[in-house]
Design goal:
flat, 241 residues, Arc Repressor Mutant, subunit A, Tetracycline Repressor, domain 2, 2 domains, DNA-binding, repressor (chains A, B), homodimer, mainly alpha
DNA sequence: TTGAGTTTCTGAACACTGTTCACCAATAAC
DNA sequence: GTTATTGGTGAACAGTGTTCAGAAACTCAA
């Protein structure tokens, strides 16, 4: 039995701050943990229980701070845009500015596993993202595009980024031998497969086997981006009708 | 107790063909049922158990014909292309041909609920789909495009179709009051929201509120498609380098 | 017709999932 | 120092994909 008024001697007392000061949960910490789980387990492995385990906490504790798994995913999506600065629109260099915007977007989407899947499932019209949308619109306006094009060009570009990165990650998932010469092997296999098709029935696939596979994803992204930008540029100066 | 050797009298025997002749399961029937469930319950409600229930069959019976839920989804994806005929390439009218291709694709994606979600998760390079890819490539070749553009233009177009329809359905899900004046109400609400933003911080959003929302999805799809086609067309005649 | 063999389907189980709810502990307010 | 309020617990519920021993139905040869 402990004597209530006696001081506990140092060797009895566990080292100071035995129980860590219980830094409380918060949306921020939950999102951090969710990203950790996402990177480790992928989108399908991202469960509330895994997130809770990452924080050494019971599942139900999460629901104090977050209504849903949907809300958690929305918070993760929002973070995608943190510190995503768009420059002031420069009418002289709007194409290069948009190129940079798209490159930066792709880089962000690639920075977390399966991020494109999450991005694809959300519309960038939540209040937190509106300043972003506004600045993007400003760049199209500065370029001298007609209203109707301004109104959809941002969507077009975003869809391209999301879709491209999503497809990148689909291929990656098919060849999960992470690291090493996996991409090399993948290239060879796919190229060999295309090249081995009957040339009478698939002349173009056989012919294009090398160029379809040889080019890096970076190159393909840039080319697709350039196609879209040329298409948009073709509207510069057209009246609003 | 039944007497084993006595014939059962007619009034005892249930009416002829009591038990229906047990049309056996097949991949086709399973995919049919899966589509029925998809249209009724949406992608999140599409479970193996629901599909089994649709067929009045135990869940585990499905696994005799189908390895995975993944395989089932792949079969559903494949069916998207059934009877999806591409015309012979006509160098004079390749743009109109591609427009039709995209329109038809969107129509198919819209013909089943959440179909775009399934389509987005698959790469159109399964053996069954290669003839399709081949014909699409042929159209780009006929248009006189350089190899590198041919190699990615199909992807670009498919990504656009999938992404556009997916976004359409995301909006639809946000306003699930099916039928009636729901789209009207949606338009008004969104437009009102954009218009109500502080004009000093969001001048472009406020300015463009009407044109961003007023236009029908059909119109927006056509415009985005036209942008991409113009971009592609800008490469006609360029050398393969 | 009988019987063997193969295919197809069943029911139960396993290990998960998201979400809720009564309860308990720690903190903040008076 | 006692009371609220908030944050966290553990168990439970209904649902998920998938597997597996065994029963039922079909096929085909004797």
């Amino acid at each position: 039995m402990t004597q209530p008024d006696m001081p506990t001697p140092p060797w009895e007392r566990p080292p100071k701050r035995r129980r860590p000061p219980r830094v409380p949960l918060s949306r921020e910490r939950i999102v951090d943990a969710a990203y950790a789980v996402l990177d480790r387990e992928g989108y399908d492995g991202l469960s509330m229980r895994q997130v809770a385990a990452e924080l050494h906490v019971a599942v139900s504790a999460l629901y104090v701070h977050v209504r849903d798994k949907d809300e958690l995913l929305r918070l993760m999506y929002n973070r995608l845009f943190d510190g995503y600065e768009l420059p002031d629109p420069d009418p002289e260099h709007w194409r290069e500015q948009l190129r940079n915007f798209a490159r930066q977007g792709r880089k962000r989407l690639l920075s977390h596993r399966d991020m494109a899947k999450i991005s694809m499932a959300h519309i960038p019209f939540t209040p937190e993202l509106l300043p972003h949308v506004e600045r993007l619109l400003a760049m199209f306006v500065a370029a001298g595009l007609p209203k109707k094009v301004v109104a959809i060009a941002g969507d077009l570009l975003s869809t391209y980024m999301d879709g491209f990165v999503l497809e990148e990650s689909l291929w990656r998932d098919r060849y999960p031998e992470s690291g090493g010469a996996a991409p090399e092997k993948m290239r060879e296999e796919i190229q060999g497969y295309f090249a081995s098709l009957p040339p009478d029935r698939f002349p173009n696939l056989v012919e294009l086997a090398d160029v379809m596979v040889d080019e890096s994803n970076d190159y393909r992204f840039e080319l697709g981006l350039e196609i879209i930008l040329r298409g948009i540029a073709s509207y510069v100066g057209e009246p609003d009708d």
